[in-house]
Write a structure and sequence with these properties.
Helices cover 70% and strands 0% of the residues. It is mostly helical. The longest helix is centred in the middle third of the chain and has 23 residues.
Length: 184
């Protein structure tokens, strides 16, 4: 049993100090995950990996939720979901009128121009992923683990407790389904 799993078990048993021991152990991995997610966004993203990790960890700090982490993979799946929600919330916020949505762009000289953020893409992906959850929850969980948690195909299969072949089928289904939804 890994040290992370032992700490997660201690949290489940009600040890109030166990949660404090968890962040130092998973911080580097969470920061790499956050950097991967933010690298997929277009330039101009104002959220930094460190801020994304901290915000996700704060959301994960809810004691009621943390008691249900039964493995390292489950914890990272929860972290990926928290990061996804943060990025989607930020994309929605950027589309709000008070944050400049709907305003006409102003042309800047090329040396000052900043590419437009992909908030539309992320919102469309979030909506399609929500529809996939209704259609096939297992495929949606696998896509979240692969895309948002950055887990390898094998690690995602293990986190879900399924065979590699089952993960292959779910991945093919999820990718095709999302592609069709996002191509509309």
């Amino acid at each position: 049993m890994t040290e992370v799993t032992q700490i997660l078990n201690a949290i489940e048993q009600g040890d109030p100090h166990a949660a404090e021991e968890l962040l130092p152990l998973v911080y580097d991995e969470l920061r790499k995950l956050a950097a991967q997610k933010l690298a997929q966004e277009k330039p101009g993203q104002t959220l930094q990996p460190t801020a994304l990790v901290h915000e996700a960890y704060l959301r994960l700090g809810d004691v009621d939720k943390s008691r249900h982490w039964n493995s390292r993979g489950h914890f990272f799946a929860a972290a990926a979901e928290a990061m996804r929600r943060i990025l989607v919330d930020q994309a929605r916020r950027k589309q709000a009128d008070k944050h400049g949505a709907g305003r006409l762009p102003v042309d800047l000289p090329e040396d000052l121009a900043v590419p437009e953020a992909r908030s539309h893409d992320l919102l469309a992906l979030d909506e399609a992923l929500s529809r996939l959850e209704n259609h096939d929850p297992d495929a949606a969980r696998l896509v979240k683990l692969r895309y948002f948690a950055g887990l390898s195909h094998q690690d995602a299969a293990e986190a879900l407790g399924i065979s590699r072949g089952a993960a292959d089928r779910l991945w093919a289904l999820g990718r095709a389904w999302l592609f069709r939804q996002l191509s509309k």
